[in-house]
């Protein structure tokens, strides 16, 4: 009697990556490098087809297949820039260096080298998908929005850090104010908890939008209202 490997069903789609389950492992992230030089992502949407919008890149991520992509907090998760989905049919247009005004579509060589060198140096032995591989600080002022009453009231909390798990998932971390002992709260602090599993977590916003929400800006609140209906 002979045995063989079970056939792979390419119709099964990984929930997080949108890729066929058989190939989803190669798309998982295995290392992150913070973006410290102010590089940005450019995008457009259907409401302003002739206008380019920009947001700061949080970090660069190395996938198991060797691809390196910029990452931004986008709606309810940390998202590779080429894969953004805007509520107004937004589309990624490239990376942008505000200093040189250069637009480019591949990760900078120095970031690719940093990631490849680091992943060779740090050889972790993990047993579980939830084992922590890496934790990096949030350097762009990301805020997480929580609401337990359908957006009648909002709680905005600063994201302190981002944690990469062995399974490739990346989670934003905020501080539980009741558990804070030492300040400032830094990555790895025992008072931190993951946002995305929290039942009242909804979205991430960069600091400029978060500050407008805090100030009661009508346009920002209208945007929140629109997202609440999604």
Detailed description of the structure:
The structure is a single chain. The chain is an alpha+beta fold. It folds into 2 domains: 109 residues, no CATH class; 102 residues, no CATH class. 14% of the residues lie in helices and 35% in strands. The protein is built from 3 helices and 15 strands. The strands form 4 sheets. The protein has a 4-stranded antiparallel beta sheet with strand order 1-4-5-6. Strands 3-2-7-8 form a 4-stranded antiparallel beta sheet, with no helix packed on it. A hairpin with a 4-residue loop joins β4 and β5. The radius of gyration is 19 Å and the shape is globular.
Task: Calculate the mean pLDDT score and round it.
Answer: 87
The main pleated sheet reads as: 4 strands, antiparallel
Bin the strand percentage: 25-35%
Compressed to H and E, one letter per element, the order equals EEEEEEEEHEEEEEEEHH
Shape: globular
Number of structural domains: 2
Output the number of helix runs: 3
Distance between the termini: 54 Å
Low-confidence stretches: 1-9
Number of strands: 15
Which class of secondary structure composition applies to the elements?
alpha+beta
Helix content: 10-25%
State the strand order across the main sheet: 1-4-5-6
The radius of gyration is: 19 Å
